[in-house]
Amino acid sequence: MERLSPFSRRDMLKAGGAAAVMAAGLPLLPGPALAKADKSANQVPGYYRFDLGDLELTIVSDGNLVIPTALEASNVPEAELRAFLEANYLNPETNYSQMNVCLINTGDELILVDAGGGSYFQDSAGKLVQNLEAAGHSADQIDKIILTHGHPDHCWGVIDDFAEEPRFPNAVYYMNGKELDFWLSKNAVDRLPENLKLFATGAYRNLNPIKDKTTRTKNAFEVSPGIRTIDSFGHTLAHQSVMIEQGGEKLLITGDAVHHWPITFEHPDWTPSVDMEPEVAIKTRKRLMNMAADEKLTVVGYHMPYPGIGHIARDGNVFRWVPAQWQWQP
Ligand SMILES: [Zn+2]
Prior knowledge:
The protein contains 10 helices and 14 strands. By secondary structure, it is an alpha/beta fold.
């Protein structure tokens, strides 16, 4: 077949487009305008996998929350909080908070730690099932759900978008017995300040339908071999965290006992206004952070920067969050 030019198209592109075409003696024709692409609102799928011993863990995002930063440290002067956040390049008014739900695949069971915020809390949340599906799992495959506490961003996802049926139809639940009793009692509405009373009515709406499928845990309850609860009270009355031990490795899922990066680490005495018992919460987070630093634990933080996996280092009298390096192969 006769060729128009001694140069292939690839040679011309390599040599620099139009200049190469002219050098080859070919007419320079006007090409089509480059297409303008619409901006995409989609991010990459919200899951991240890693191994712990024989277990496969996947952080499945439920999306994010947007809340006033003042709620993250209600016992310090506003100017001090603002200066600290600005020094960390964070928005001083609005806190963008991740929701890192941990999925544990033991080989026999799929276990979720928390269930996300569902569709009634914030529009930016409630993405758990969508991201679970992107990760290759369906809601009906989930065997067990450990609920760290009764706040909306952790337990409102247990019921479907119509507030009727369990979103994870084959799952059973594990929640500290005192925590479950509290949220199912009239006491919950009375104990919460006016602006948080919605938490109590929502918790009742979501927890009451699953109460008969919920095992009432206490400290060191073994949910599955090597997977145990740890009492971490204060953020709520009977908040629990989760410790996983596998093949000589240990991983701590803090829930909200460790609440904000970097406030919780650098200022563990600053208290979020959502901490129900602030003095207890301060002691709890220092205990967990000291344990994580002493034992060099891998830590998963629900509200830490996505995917929320890291370590906690001691830094003088306070702490530092050290994010784990992103790895493409689990
Ligand atoms: Zn939370």
